[in-house]
Specification:
The complex is a heterodimer of chains A (470) and B (278). Chain A has 470 residues and is an alpha/beta fold. In chain A, strand 10 and strand 11 form a beta hairpin. Chain A is globular and about 70 Å long. With 278 residues, chain B is α/β, with parallel strands linked by helices. Chain B has 9 helices and 16 strands. Chain B has a 7-stranded antiparallel β-sheet with strand order 6-1-2-5-4-3-7. Chain B has a 7-stranded mixed β-sheet with strand order 11-10-9-8-12-13-16, with helices on both faces. In chain B, strand 4 and strand 5 form a beta hairpin. In chain B, helix 2 runs parallel beside helix 9 and helix 5 runs parallel beside helix 6. The longest helix of chain B is centred in the C-terminal third of the chain and has 17 residues. The mean pLDDT of chain B is 94. Classes of the chains: A alpha/beta (470), B alpha/beta (278). Chains A and B meet through helix 15 of A and helix 1, helix 2, strand 7, strand 14 and helix 8 of B.
């Protein structure tokens, strides 16, 4: 035993190979290139196979982490993907975009003394291997129950609910408002972080096991939740995501050259504006770009601007580095690519040129004062610290408010004071019988995996309802 | 796919009418609402107001002016061809009620949007006066339909080739001077809506305009269609497209409509060249 653990300690965490920063900052190809088989096996051997795996308690969908890692260590890659699929229908996505450092890897015992096992990288490896080899058998499906479920929204929560309920033998139809499935995975997260063919392939897997997909369906307009029941659906899950983008509400914000992050990223990702004019949707290519905010979406926007040919990209945030909500890895990637950070800085107004296009931003320096309601120290303006920054493109990435389109169309679904759906955290049940909700339309802007976790909870509850009753 | 079942060229082929198979949208569409249309895989999402819908036939009608690459691409689609994506009905329907005397003012392809609203107000029991205008006689669209949907009807052309010579605003003033008007609806080019609103403001007559800013998703997600109304940021796709004409920042709207002028020009020229060499 002593000998075995000694070997384990010797293996260092295997770094993820990446495109060099000065190369990748000008292309849209994926930044990390993925583990090789050898690297993955080596990394898998670092896992201690704990009796009570702490990592699993940090996974919102409860993946058997030691189980799939053991398979990798034994080079049983098929076994590994089957293990993951038991709990997670989107492993190639999660391996890339989950904040592992605060979930599974944050709790890894190996990480107490050294660096944690690279669980995310391993999950990604297994999923990519299954996809590329085409060997991954489909997950097995329970006998048909004859029950019909409508899932509204094809983002991470909707796809999870759909996947889970299909495997439990229910008939599932997924309604998507856009012309393509994937929700935030296709319109929001950029190609260089999550290639779109990977999302398409994960959705295809669900189609192979029987998922019906209807795009261009704005539930709430073209069909109401009530009408879905009339059409014979037994249960409805609402995962329509966050909606209306927040703006800074400062003078000049309607000038041409100021985007919400939603618009900027949708133009770039979903509409493939970076391939204009091959694709018809244009996108403004700024030379001097400012991005507001400090979350993952801010980093995505800043790095997209750099790839679209900017000379300078500056992130402007009114608090300090400690308060930045983005993943450390994302901030690090952005810095490597030459993104500058102007912290403790707040925008005051935008100024345009004679053509009505953005030309300058007036900013104000801040300092940290007493803690506010959120427990973070409140940024306070420093008097007389106004300054001007030249810019020809600005992206506002400071979050979103609830989209009222669906919720306004049904009075029985209770909303909270911010317009998000009230759903029981234990079950995902809304106040309307037969209707569940999860993801950003319940929590406000959060992460892919939290939305998937909510989807998992709702799927279990929907299954109970369809087999046992409300 | 959404098949075109009927197609007409209007205004010397600068304006195209398509009747499209879209039964679910047709069943729900109400006057004032719009759809977003995308021709093919690489296409742009273009918002177009629904000009007519037939729930029984399961079709909607759109009328668009060919102004750039996307609409030029739409124009190449003939009966039997299909749009890849049609999404809707989006936006709030026009609030139609019995008010008494209503004036409907339309310019250019705005008349296509105005038509179902005009009919709606007439059917609701209002006395409807319509004033439609265009640059010249050839460019006038839907004259017969508008006439049939109105109690009183006026046509204006900028060059005097048909009807009153001059702008719709001149006839509107005359109507406002001689009648007690309860509501004016103005739909057309932004400058027309701006000047109509300026006039009706002096007469203190409530005015509705229908805005058509650039959009992407059309469901309130992207904020592209934001417009300042009464000093507040509104999203035309979910808060509109109808707004109080006296509150809209038309200059801001026009500026945002010009956002991609250069790109659009390049794409259109490239498209024309490609089609030309085919």
């Amino acid at each position: 035993m002593a000998e075995k653990s000694a070997t384990k300690e010797k293996i260092a965490r295997q770094p993820m190979p990446e495109q060099a920063a000065d190369v990748r900052r000008r292309n849209f190809e994926e930044v990390p290139t993925g583990y090789s088989k050898e690297t993955a096996v080596l990394e898998a051997r670092r896992c201690l196979q704990c009796k009570k795996p702490a990592c699993m308690t940090g996974c919102p969908v409860g993946v058997d982490i030691p189980g799939f890692i053991k398979c990798i260590a034994e080079e049983d890659f098929k076994g590994a993907i089957q293990k993951i699929w038991e709990k997670n229908s989107l492993p190639a996505v999660c391996g890339r975009v989950c904040p592992q450092e605060v979930q599974c890897e944050g709790l890894c015992i190996v990480g107490k003394k050294g660096e944690p096992v690279a669980i995310g990288n391993l999950e990604r490896f297994v999923a990519d291997m299954a996809r590329n080899s085409g060997e991954g058998e489909l997950p097995s499906k329970a006998a048909a129950t004859g029950k019909k479920v409508a899932v509204v929204g094809s983002g991470p929560s909707g796809l999870t609910v759909a996947g889970d309920l299909l495997l439990k033998g229910h008939s599932v139809t997924l309604f998507e408002a856009f012309h393509k499935t994937g929700g935030v995975l296709v319109y929001g997260i950029p190609e260089f972080r999550l290639p779109k063919d990977i999302v398409a392939s994960e959705v295809e897997t669900l189609e192979k096991i029987g998922l019906n997909i209807e795009c261009n369906m704005v539930v709430g307009s073209i069909v109401s939740v009530e009408e879905l029941f009339e059409e014979g659906y037994d249960a409805v899950f609402i995962g329509v995501g966050a909606g209306l983008p927040r703006f800074l509400n400062i003078p000049g914000e309607d000038l041409v050259g100021i985007y919400s992050a939603n618009e900027y990223l949708t133009r770039a990702n979903l509409m493939k504006g970076y391939l204009f004019p091959k694709y018809d949707t244009p996108i403004i290519r700024g030379k001097n770009v400012i991005v507001f905010g400090a979350g993952n979406v801010t980093m995505d926007s800043a790095r997209t601007a750099m790839r679209l040919g900017a000379d300078r990209v500056r992130v402007v945030y009114r608090r300090s580095r400690e308060e930045m909500p983005a993943r450390a890895a994302e901030i690090h990637h952005a810095e490597e690519e030459g993104i500058e950070f102007h912290l403790l800085t707040a925008p005051v107004r935008f100024l345009g040129n004679e053509n009505g296009r953005l030309a300058q931003m007036e900013g104000l320096k801040m300092e940290l004062g007493e803690p506010d309601d959120s427990g973070r120290r409140r940024p306070v303006p420093i008097e007389g610290s106004e300054f001007m920054l030249d810019c020809d493109l600005a992206v506002v990435a400071i979050g979103a408010n609830a989209n009222p389109l669906l919720t306004q169309s049904d009075q029985e679904i209770t909303l909270n004071k911010w317009g998000y759906i009230e759903a029981d955290p234990e079950t995902g049940k809304t106040t309307k019988k037969g209707v569940w909700a999860g993801g950003d339309i319940v929590t406000g802007s959060a992460t892919v995996i939290l939305a998937m976790g909510a989807g998992r909870i709702a799927a279990n509850s929907i299954h109970d309802y369809l087999t046992l009753g409300w | 796919m959404f098949k075109i079942v009927k197609r007409e060229e209007m205004a010397q082929a600068t304006v195209i009418m398509n009747e499209i198979e879209a039964p679910r949208i047709a069943a729900k569409a109400r006057p004032g609402q719009f759809v977003i249309i995308k021709a093919n895989e690489t296409g742009e999402r273009i918002p177009l107001t629904i000009s007519d819908s037939d729930a029984e036939k399961g079709t909607i009608t759109i009328i668009y002016m060919v102004v750039g690459k996307s609409t030029a691409l739409f124009k190449t689609l003939l009966v039997g061809d299909a749009f890849q994506d049609v999404i809707g009905p989006l936006g709030k329907p026009t609030h139609i009620e019995k008010l008494g005397n209503v004036v409907c003012v339309g310019g250019g392809t705005g008349v296509a949007v105005l038509y179902p609203i005009t009919r709606g107000f007439k059917d609701a029991g209002n006395n409807v006066t319509s004033i439609i205008g265009s640059r010249n006689k050839e460019l006038l669209i839907l004259e017969d339909k508008m006439k049939a949907a109105s109690s009183e009807f006026h046509v204006c052309t900028d060059d005097g080739s048909y009807g009153h010579k001059g702008f719709v605003t001149e006839v509107l003033k005359d109507v406002l001077d001689n009648n007690k008007i309860d509501l004016v609806i103005a739909i057309g080019p932004v400058p027309m809506m701006k000047f109509v609103s300026k006039i009706t403001e002096t007469y203190n007559v409530k005015t509705l305009v229908s805005l058509n800013p650039i959009m992407i998703d059309g469901t309130g997600m992207c904020g592209c269609c934001r417009v300042s109304v009464g000093g507040k940021t509104k999203f035309a796709c979910v808060d509109g497209p109808d707004f109080d004409g006296h509150q809209v920042d038309y200059d801001g709207l026009m500026n945002r409509l010009r956002a991609y002028q250069e790109d659009e020009k390049k794409a259109y020229e490239a498209h024309c060249q490609m089609v030309g060499t085919k």
